[in-house]
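Entry: Flavin-containing monooxygenase
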Amino acid sequence: MADFNERERRKEVVAIIGAGISGLLACKYCLSKGFDPIVFESESSIGGVWTKTIGSTKLQTPKPFYQFSDFPWPDSVTEMFPAQQTVLEYIESYARHFDLVRCIQFNSKVLSLSYEDGKLSGYNWNVWGEAFNTNSKGKWNINVQDTPTLSTQERS
């Protein structure tokens, strides 16, 4: 009976904006802590700024300093300063390896977010402080646009 109740308990949903390196790391961390992350990515693929750079762009730091701590570069990457496509492939393989892609909502641009708790709303510091109070009864509202259709949806 305890197992059933544990499975039925609703996980806390965490919204993450962007499926670049930081968004993927945040997603993996949230999953490891038992949260249910949703990554809103405005593009149709992951990679963040690496999707916007030209193909001849290379890492500016040696690859051992630009890798996920739990996911080393594959042995097939021999260049010390890999090019854009190789970096993208590395980021994509990280996301696949840890099954992060299932948490990503592609073509979803976050237009705005707000917090409401029934007494405070808006963007002043008191609201943001209350939003991170673990005893808060408030909720976040996220306005998301589907980039291909330009339709919008509010999520709470």
